[in-house]
Amino acid sequence: MERGLGPLLWGRGRRLGSVAFRQQKWKSSVSTRAKMPPCDFVPEKYESYPYERMQKIREQNISPSLRMYYKKPLLLHQGHMQWLFDYEGQRYLDLFAGIVTVSVGHCHPKVTVATQKQLARLWHTTNIYMHPSIQEYAEKLTSLLPDPLKVVYLTNSGSEANDLAMFMARLYTRNFDIISFRGAYHGGSPYTLGLTSIGLYKHGLANGFGCSTTMLPDVFRGPWGGSHCRDSPVQTVRKCSCSEGECHANDQYIEQFKDTLNTSVPKTIAGFIAEPIQGVNGAVQYPRSFLKEAYQLARERGGVCISDEVQTGFGRTGSHFWGFQTHDVVPDIVTLAKGIGNGFPMAAVVTTKEIASSLAQNLHFNTFGGSPLACVVGAAVLDAIEEDGLQKNSEDVGTYMLLELAKLRDKFEIVGDVRGKGLMIGVEMVTDKDSRHPLPAEEINQIWEDCKDMGVLIGRGGLYSQTFRIKPPMCITKKDVDFAVEVLHSALQRHMERAAVK
Question: Of 382, 282, 288, 290, which is closest to residue 336 (Cα–Cα)?
């Protein structure tokens, strides 16, 4: 079993990406622009303010905390399925889906028509009255979850859903402490920031009372990992000697989880929350049996287990509709958002009748959650996933993309890891595979900008923003993948040429 150096040793013997490049002999093949797949959609003519005025308004009237991508931020005008169009009509393949939110495609016709019909019928009543769509949607959504997860509370965002899940866990168990992984993102509200364990989101104010973090079982960057650990078509380049049915890395990470239970929390806890695959941290996957064992340990301490499906839900992992199913577990609470509404602001907490009843002891109210409009949108998204075969598409196209990206990993020293499941993919960039030191930001930025200039939009993630996040609308095709991989290959090749002349 290979043991990693870990972040404390990254500074020793550091090799810059440019050094790693000079040690390889590559011939440039970047002579032509990758050919974008055809699209018969024609966007409307842009008729709003000029780019410069938009930029000025942004600087003066919109919170500076809302940062934008790219040196010259995009001014997007229209979307169609997996495509986005800017104000000049330039077309882009969207591999980030509005931060993993556009599940069935930008302006999907079925969702658009359903929304338009409901807009003409009834927008809002609040939950003090019944309306058909909330009952219809609750029945449809909970039918897709295993027993006993049959009671839903509809909210408006992932942060709000996780906030409510924390509240329910504490009410139900009458305990207070909740455990999350380092590197986790569970929201930006003052309550959920205690669970979020990424320094860039911390504001130096008191938060997180009753929240403890445990070691992230990251089989690529963590202390332990091997070549058979994760549920993915692509494994790490790290080697191990584990026999069939054994995983030394998993055993070591479980010991760390036990250590957290024995040192950082009381004898009884309120819960343990985890994403089936970490999203903001760059599609980090755990050893196959880790969550199953961790759930058992958390329940032995009186806690409930919460699955944050904000990014992994609704078929994105391909093999299953929900991410937790890939770990062979049934949580006590599930939180949903992002893809639930294909870009419409809605979210949900699904739990058992017993846990839901704990919230009914006193009044708890949500003005906009479960509105007639939101529920119609949510139902149309579920219909589109089924009718368009998007879960199967996620599995087929996602597996194809992972295997194609793995070829880039094998070719380029700076592509350290390719991982994921379905259309939940991370490509981690390093100075070299031996040290696994994150590639410097200025080098990653150049590759990222080149991809954008060639028509492909990719997300960023990881503690050092060192991982490309590829989580497109689930309607993406294999031809789109071929184009995207060719673009990334060209961007990597260009970067090597720049480094070679330094």
Answer: 382
